[in-house]
Inverse folding.
DNA sequence: AATGAATGAGTCTTCATTCAT
DNA sequence: TATGAATGAAGACTCATTCAT
């Protein structure tokens, strides 16, 4: 009888991570107490500190997971065998769908970065930059190929699009009029239209 | 001899508001203690509670000021005597410049809304919606007039643009390569290009 | 009606210091909780942290008081107008009596120094050294004058005597056979006899 | 292949004892966590609790070892075939050398006695008394024989000397100007000189 | 003989707010 | 108008010890 799982069979660290994600998104990092997390996960404080060094550590794990997933997806789309216009459209739409599918992660991501310890913050920023640069390279590729306008610096284009992705957690509601895919198509379309020469 | 001012002549409530704005933007609302605010403003706790009912109140005042300013500016541009295309471009660029000029306010705005008490939160949301609707009306006016594409719902267009405005506090640095006006022109341009029929 | 005093009229900071001294001596610094201190002083935790920055601070205050008193007494005896032999005897006996009269302070002093924060520890050590050096100067004066033997380095003589003072808190009991003054006379006598040429 | 030893061949219990001694002396009993001890010894917590009933037990073992060694050495010198003056001098010097050679043990001994559980504390005190009495008997023997002054009660003489031994861990530094033997000779000399009739 | 996950009581400290003056 | 002492609830984190394996 393993001690690492409870009635539901999920290992303790993952139960803690899930509970923390939900609560951090709900009330914000500072407003979430360690006590609430462990109660929500059905374990004790000692257990949490057995697996995670600190509350900050827990937040960092959430970040690490999000970053890894997003980077992998972007790489897949960017490396695909398709015209550059298509690859940009696919990547731009995919990040929207993925973000909507994990709105909790997104809220945390954009709202709680400054709660990480300085060194962890730095690490996250650097991985984030890698992501940004991969996307920027795609835009530049299209600009070089002449299918995208060069009127706007690629950096700014990337920030423009990711601003709207970032913003999703502020306004998107699952029971709204548009499905995630529809929102994604619209936003990717806006990007592509803005890039027309 | 007025007791409400200090050596610098600025009234106490405004000194408090300025100190709070700076600190909230710097460390976030929860990480800023009332003690730090009063020290930074050079007054005592009693003074703060004389002018403001609570820490939350102070945050609310910051919001009120930002909202009022932005709404006034938007109204001015929207009501101007110019072609719709020009009015949208001007309004879109202006909100960028104003936001960059008050980056502290912007950081607070988008990051600390959930720290307001429920009723104040509701009030802010409602004023925010009014702002959103005024901008959406402009977009719709252009779509009806046939100068903007109807491919994307106006609501989504507004969120697209304001996502990028919101995002500014994440990436814009005063000593970067672009002036506020240049950034504003680029972002307004992207919006207008995306709206081309 | 002053808020700084309680039923007994003693100011809060002093009540806290007295309670802390008693408890630190009784159970040791680490075994004494802040909760116990405030309960024993009849105030709340908030009050303690209003006057003292930390538990460590409280300990430091105890040290500061003891050091000041001892240094003042030593200086008085050392500067007195009497033969060197008499001055050494008086100083040596006085530190014994004073230590016995404040055995709590002494227990804390010799047992809890390593609980101070590094910088405070350094500061206490430096004041302690000053005390040591004043006493050593007396011994050396006697050695130069030829009334004390030069067989043992003065430094070692000082440590020899203060070892026995330090040790008092380990064995002295108020209801033992000897009064503080008798113990003091004996210990001073041992020192002087050891110093006979 | 014995499981009780590691790469270095030292049995686990002894490795634990050595690690605990070092750490207790370094940071004090309360500031040393069981986790630190096992890490420093290269074993796990389970192993520690397999060999020792509690953290307190570990401390008790340190005491038992020190007491046994010191008692044996004192007995050997006291029972030697030499004039009483010589035997006292040898015993007095030997305890100084032994203490300096095991300064960690000494720090722990004099600083952590009150961390022992009441019954263990009592036991240690009683063995300590036995040691004290053996030494006192030597002093008294000299006093009866007329080679030592009777001016000071023998009990006090013992405490005087052991005070200085106790104090060694406070000031003695291995790289100081005096070797352990030189310090021992000086301190024994001071004792003998103080006892001259 | 040894592991290491889990406990749960306890630690120090922070902080928004109140209130007599 | 302004002070600052005092509150009290809540916060993150530590740690000796247990126990199924």
């Amino acid at each position: 009888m393993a001690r690492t799982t409870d009635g539901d069979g999920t290992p303790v660290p993952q139960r803690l991570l899930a509970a923390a994600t939900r609560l951090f998104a709900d009330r914000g990092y500072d407003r979430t107490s360690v006590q609430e997390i462990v109660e929500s996960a059905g374990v004790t404080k000692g257990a949490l500190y057995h697996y995670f060094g600190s509350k900050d550590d827990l937040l960092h794990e959430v970040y690490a997971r999000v970053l890894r997933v997003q980077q992998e997806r972007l790489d897949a789309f960017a490396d695909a065998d398709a015209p550059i216009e298509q690859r940009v459209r696919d990547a731009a739409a995919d990040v929207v769908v993925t973000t909507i599918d994990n709105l909790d992660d997104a809220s945390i991501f954009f709202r709680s970065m400054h709660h990480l310890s300085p060194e962890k913050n730095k690490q996250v920023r650097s991985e984030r930059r890698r992501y940004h640069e991969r996307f920027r390279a795609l835009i530049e590729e299209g600009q070089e190929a002449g299918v995208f306008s060069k009127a706007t610096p690629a950096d700014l284009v990337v920030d423009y699009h990711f601003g709207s992705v970032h913003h999703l957690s502020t306004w998107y509601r699952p029971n709204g009029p548009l499905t995630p895919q529809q929102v994604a198509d619209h936003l990717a379309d806006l990007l592509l239209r803005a890039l027309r020469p």
Remarks:
- Chain A has a mean pLDDT of 92.
- Chains A and D do not touch (no CB pair under 8 Å).
- Residues 65-195 of chain A form a domain with the Tetracycline Repressor; domain 2 fold (CATH 1.10.357.10).
- Residues 1, 3, 33-35, 45-46, 49, 54-55 of chain A lie near DNA strand F (CB under 10 Å from a C1').
